Amino acid sequence: MARTTRTPRVDFVIVSNRLPIDAKPTADGEDQWVTSPGGLVAALQPVMAGREAAWVGWPGRADTELAPFSLDKTHYVPVSMSEQELAEHYEGMSNATIWPLYHDVIVPPEFHREWWDSYTRVNQRFAEAAASVAEQDGFVWVQDYQLQLVPQMLRGLRPDLRIGYFHHIPFPPYELFAQLPWRQEILHGLLGADVVGFQRVADASNMRQAVRRNFGYSMNKPIVRVPVDARLPRDPHAPPVTASKTREVRVDAFPISLDQAAIVEMATTDSVIARSREIREELGNPNTIFLGVDRLDYTKGISHRLKAFGELLEEGTLQASDAVFVQLASPSRERVESYRELRDDIELQVGRINGDFGHLDRPAIVYLHQNMSREEMMALYLACDVMVVTPLRDGMNLVAKEFVSARTDNKGVLVLSEFTGAADELDQALMVNPHDIDGMKEAFVAAAHMPVAEATRRMAELRATVEEHDVRRWATGFLDAVTPHTPKPRR
Ligand code: ADQ
């Protein structure tokens, strides 16, 4: 890879909390750059491929100033964060306030004014970094809930720019959003963009409703008319704004997807197919392999699904001699208290179920708290019979789409929570409410015994849906909405 330290101004800038690569020091003291995991990176990488662009983000190490650098055509602009800012902006405001509030308050959100101050300060730093690399009239695409103030801050610094914002997680109903002491600041921040994109139609509608309730701006779905001189604070009881000078902000749904062709390529290599057979053998060739793949996060519903599986073993509907549950849980947000507690709870639950129902040579649940290579993930998708994706709430869930894309053999059954964005599109999955343990048990049994012809028909339809709505369509749809002249993703 060609590496330079020159950062030119470019007309396409991505801004996300994390850079898509992390600095890892090697034994000789040099930095080595490795891809950081997660759904956002998986979705944006194909959009960036082959394009001259800048990516602004935190490089994964606190209290470190790193100079901008370039690898191939991407210019990386590291934004520094102190240890305290990491604790307050990222672990605090982003992941202990906004994340739980926006995911149906599954755990109680905490509200701390110092966290908010830090969030504001860090957002300003990101806006300044983006402003410094964007070309005149360029396009800046801000990503996700850690940076909701950046669009308006950037508009203040660089009114010439076209600004897009994409929200990867749910946007909550107003009754929940209204708890946020800084709800007006967040809405005002988002409305600095020309297009605010969400995963689901319901998310976009929730944001428009929040704007109506707080600011009374006039709108013609999906367009919101924002006064060019909009300032805070605004009295929510003031009459609707009728100022003649307004700018149009599109608040709309753009469901994210993945690069199906790339997944198919990987999932059809001889080594991945051979590895999938090996995995089945290593698991003792059971009749049914259930698979869960998630970041270890309380939104993903891991304990609900293990409870359903455990009850099926207890009742004797399934036997550990012919059914196994493989649960991958990638380490996540390990310094946030609720995540540490979740890990303890899940590991206790796995231990109990294995203790009660496992055999010497065969546990009932194979649990791995590890990151896997993409190849190993593909082999697991191919090896399983039933893919279990049962979040309590999820913006989209790319694992469901990855599984479907990998199954070129049209085999395997997807059990999917209706509370994922993916459920809006993947209607041939077996849909479940993860809070309904009996309903989930029925779905597990139906999936394990589904006639081959029905499973094949469902999978073929699921695959066709993901093929049609792949990540390029997502990116093109968003970029077209921002401006017909924005450069398109290249093949
Ligand atoms: P996430 O909450 O991270 O993403 P998801 O969409 O499922 O959730 O993406 C997870 C990614 O991590 C997938 O690409 C998956 O393959 C990978 N992954 C998971 N476990 C792994 C493991 N053990 N080893 C290696 N890789 C693993 C957020 C939102 C989602 C939204 C995405 C994209 O929360 O709702 O779908 O952004 O917008």
3D structure, described in words:
It is an enzyme of class 2 (transferase). InterPro entries: Glyco_trans_20. One of its GO terms (molecular function) is alpha,alpha-trehalose-phosphate synthase (UDP-forming) activity. The chain is of the alpha/beta class and 491 residues long. It folds into two domains: 3-256 and 474-482, Glycogen Phosphorylase B (Rossmann fold, 3-Layer(aba) Sandwich), CATH 3.40.50; 260-469, Rossmann fold (3-Layer(aba) Sandwich). The chain contains 16 helices and 19 strands. The protein has helices spanning 39-48, 83-102, 113-133, 150-157, 174-177, 183-190, 201-215, 260-267, 270-282, 302-315, 337-357, 374-383, 398-406, 437-448, 452-468, 471-482; strands at residues 3-4, 10-18, 21-25, 31-35, 53-58, 69-71, 74-78, 134-143, 162-166, 195-198, 219-220, 223-227, 246-253, 288-295, 323-330, 365-368, 386-389, 413-417, 430-432. The strands form three sheets. It has an eleven-stranded mixed sheet with strand order 1-6-7-5-2-8-9-10-13-12-11, with helices on both faces. α9 (270-282) crosses α12 and α10 runs parallel beside α11. Adenosine-5'-diphosphate-glucose (ADQ) binds at residues 37-40, 42-43, 168-169, 256, 293-295, 328, 330, 371-372, 377, 394-399, 402.
